[in-house]
From TrEMBL, chains A, B:
<dbReference type="InterPro" id="IPR042257">
    <property type="entry name" value="DGOK_C"/>
</dbReference>
<dbReference type="InterPro" id="IPR042258">
    <property type="entry name" value="DGOK_N"/>
</dbReference>
<dbReference type="Pfam" id="PF05035">
    <property type="entry name" value="DGOK"/>
</dbReference>
<dbReference type="InterPro" id="IPR007729">
    <property type="entry name" value="DGOK"/>
</dbReference>
<protein>
    <submittedName>
        <fullName>MFS transporter</fullName>
    </submittedName>
</protein>
C-alpha cells in the first residue's frame, strides 16, 4: 500500500468529501457526509479537520469549495482569470501554517463579473489529467451551472447561470409550484422543453406551461420535465458553442444526461467526464506544485 | 344626479374595487378594500355582495377578475380568442339569476396556451372608449404582465409573462434576495438593466449581478433597479413590437413608467392609459350589451 501524502477535502455548502491520497496520487480512503459549510458553526472548522485527520491520518490537508467563502472557515481571496494551477497555489490560504490550506476560488473581473469556488479544481484537474484538452469548453451543471472556457490549460473566462436555483424557486415558491412535483426525465417532454427554449421567451413560456395544464391541453405530469428542458435549453443556448464543437460535462449521471441531451440538441457534441476523478487530479496537481513538502 | 344602473366589481386576488354606475355611465360612488378573493371564504361571496349592495344600492352586479376562478365564487368558463364584448356577454355566469353575474376570462387555445381573468374588461374597454385603436398592442404590467394584440376591436391573441412574480421570487427566496432590498427607480441603473436584457442571457446575467457586488465592482443599492430593468427589458424584448410601433400601457404610474422606459428603449412609442377608466368603459359596454335590463 502506498504511503499517505495528504488529505483533500471537497467542502461544499451542504456536503463534504474527504480523500486520503497517497504520494503516487492513489486514493486510499474516502469519507462522505452532509457536514457542509452551512452545518458547521464558525470556530468549529479546526475541530472538524482534526476529526478527519484522526480518521484518515495525520498529514497536511487541502480544502476546496465554499469552505473558503464568507460563510466558511475564512474567506480566501479569489485568484483572477486567466488562472491555472500555479495561480491557485500562489494564493493558498494557510489556516493552520504548513498543515491546512484553503484553495482560493476564481473571479472574473474583466467584462462581465463572475465567481467560482471549488469548480476551479475540477476543471483544471480535467485538463491536467488529459480528460479534456487545454483549449476546451467545460460545463458543470448544478444549482449554479458553470461554463468554463479553457485556453492553454488555464481558466480563460467563465459564466455562471442560476439554472438549478431557478428550477427550485419555481418548484418551491411560484404559482407553477404545484405543477412541478413530478420527477424530471430526459424523455419526450424534456425534448419539447428544449425545443421551446429556442423561442427565447423564457418569462412567458413559463406562464404558458401553467395555462396549458389549466386548459386541459397537457398532462401535468409532463410539466416538470418540460420546464426543466426549457431552463436547461435556455442555459445551453446562452453559451457560445462553436458549430459542431464539443462540450465536456462534469456532473452526476442524471443531471449530466439532461445537459448532454440539451447540448446535442444544439448540434454540439457532449462528452461526459467523471467529476470526482477530475477533482482528485486537480487537487493532486496543486499538492504536487506546493514547494517544500 | 343620474339614476343608479348597476354595480361593477373588479374583484382580484388581493384587492377589490366596487363602483356604483349610473345609467349614463358616470361613477356615482367607489369602494375599495383588500377583500380580495383569497380573503373571502368559500360560500361567503353572496354575503359579500349583499353588503356591497347595502352600501351602494339594490341593483344588478357585474363582477370581473379572479372571482371567476377556481379559487373564487364559481369558476366561469373562459371565452376563447378572438373575443370581444359580445363573447363575454354570451358567457356571463349568473350566480344570482338576473341579479349578479360573473364575467368570464379569456383563453387562448390555438398555438400557445394562455389565460386571463379581469384584464379582458380593461383592454376591451380601452378600445370601445377610443383610448386605443381597434388594432393595437396593449400591455398590462404586473405580477403576470399581459401583452394583448387587438384586431378589429377584439382580443386576437395574447401572451402572459411572469415578470413581476419572477422579481418577487428572486427578492424573497433566491441567493440574490439580500441584494434586492432597495426600491426600484427608473434611473441609470434601471437603464443599464434594460441594456443588459439585449444580450438575452437572463439566467447568467442574474448570477452576474450578485458576483459584481461580491467583487466590489458595483453598488448593492443599484442591484434591484438593474435586475428590474433586466427582467422588464427581457419581457418587452420578447414581444413582437413593430419598428416604431405604439404600445398602449395600462398600469399604475410607477410600474407604467418602468415599462414605458423599456418600450422606448426598443425604439417603440409608449402611450399610458388610465386602467381604471378602461375598466369602467369595458364593464359599462358589457352592461349595455346585456339584453333585457
Amino acid at each position: 500500500m502506498s504511503e499517505l501524502a495528504f488529505i483533500a477535502i471537497d467542502w461544499g455548502t451542504t456536503n463534504r468529501r474527504a480523500y486520503a491520497i497517497a504520494s503516487d496520487g492513489a486514493v486510499i480512503q474516502t469519507l462522505r457526509d452532509d457536514k457542509g459549510v452551512l452545518s458547521v458553526a464558525a470556530g468549529s472548522f479546526v475541530g472538524e479537520v482534526a476529526k478527519i485527520r484522526k480518521r484518515l491520518g495525520d498529514v497536511p490537508v487541502l480544502c476546496a469549495g465554499m469552505v473558503g467563502s464568507t460563510r466558511g472557515w475564512v474567506e480566501a481571496p479569489y485568484a483572477q482569470c486567466p488562472a491555472g494551477i500555479d495561480a491557485l497555489v500562489e494564493r493558498l490560504v494557510w489556516v493552520e501554517p504548513g498543515r491546512t490550506a484553503i484553495i482560493p476560488g476564481v473571479a472574473q473581473l474583466h467584462g462581465r463579473c463572475d465567481v467560482m469556488r471549488g469548480e476551479e479544481v475540477q476543471v483544471l484537474g480535467a485538463v491536467v489529467s488529459g480528460m479534456a484538452p487545454g483549449d476546451a469548453l467545460l460545463c458543470q451543471p448544478g444549482t449554479h451551472s458553470k461554463w468554463v472556457r479553457m485556453k492553454h490549460g488555464q481558466i480563460a473566462d467563465f459564466r455562471t447561470a442560476m439554472t438549478g436555483e431557478m428550477f427550485a424557486l419555481l418548484r418551491n415558491h411560484s404559482l407553477l409550484g404545484d405543477f412541478l412535483k413530478a420527477d424530471v426525465v430526459a424523455g419526450p417532454a424534456f425534448q419539447e422543453g428544449l425545443e421551446l427554449a429556442t423561442d427565447n421567451h423564457l418569462l412567458s413560456d413559463l406562464f404558458g406551461e401553467r395555462a396549458a395544464v389549466v386548459l386541459g391541453q397537457r398532462d401535468v405530469d409532463d410539466t416538470a420535465s418540460r420546464v426543466s428542458g426549457l431552463l436547461i435549453g435556455s442555459d445551453v443556448r446562452d453559451q457560445v458553442i462553436a458549430a459542431g464543437g464539443t462540450v465536456y460535462i462534469l456532473a452526476d449521471q442524471a443531471l449530466g444526461a439532461l445537459y448532454a441531451a440539451a447540448v446535442t440538441a444544439t448540434g454540439a457534441r457532449p462528452v461526459m467526464l467523471d467529476s470526482h476523478a477530475a477533482f482528485l487530479a486537480g487537487i493532486t496537481a496543486i499538492w504536487d506544485t506546493i514547494d517544500g513538502h
